[in-house]
Amino acid sequence: MYLYNTTFKVELSLTNDFIYFIHEEIKPKIYAFDDVIGVHFLELLNVDASDGNTYCLQINFTDVTACNQYVLGYKNELFQQIYKRYQDKVLHFSSVLKSVEL
Predict the structure, then answer these.
(1) What does pLDDT average to over the chain?
(2) Tell me: the pLDDT tens digits for 1-21?
(3) How far apart are CA 91 and CA 11, in angstroms?
(4) Using one digit for the tens of pLDDT, what is the confidence trace for 27-38?
(5) Are strands 36-43 and 53-61 parallel, antiparallel or unpaired?
(6) Using CA atoms, how far apart are residues 61 and 71, in angstroms rounded to an integer?
(7) Residues 16, 102: contact at Cβ < 8 Å?
(8) Taking the CB of residue 55, how many other CB atoms lie within 10 A of it?
(9) What are the C-alpha distances in Å from 43 to residues 47, 72, 74, 76?
(10) How far apart are CA 10 and CA 92, in angstroms?
(11) Pairing with 50, which of 8, 61, 63, 79 sits 20 to 30 Å away (CA)?
């Protein structure tokens, strides 16, 4: 399993709008993408939230090819939508994680 994780730092005044935006506009588009087996939106609790809340959008894929297709086909569109709506009030970075089996 491969997980594409994007972490967002969101200004406090935009928290409710951002949560709604992810759940109502972004998650349905991600689920429409081929080979997505799960989408999770989580809040990080062990970080300083005095200047904003931190969230993770995690997308699970069956294999690396599906993950790469998402990155090439939709990731930039997602980030453009977020920047257009929130500009520098929502910061983000992404990483790809692979399940490690013993």
Answers:
(1) 91
(2) 899 999 999 999 999 999 999
(3) 9
(4) 998 888 878 999
(5) antiparallel
(6) 11
(7) no
(8) 20
(9) 10, 26, 23, 22
(10) 9
(11) 79
Counting Cβ atoms within 10 Å, is residue 87 exposed (0-12), middle (13-18) or buried (19+)? exposed
CA-closest candidate to residue 52, choices 16, 77, 102, 101? 16
Q: Give me 42's structure tokens.
A: 């989580």
Does an H or E element contain 81, and which? helix 76-86
Q: How far is Cα 47 from Cα 34, in angstroms, rounded to an integer?
A: 33
- Residue 41, both tokens: 């939106």
9, 86 contact by CB (below 8 A): no
Run of H or E residues at 10: strand 2-10
Q: 49 versus 19: which is more confidently predicted?
A: 19
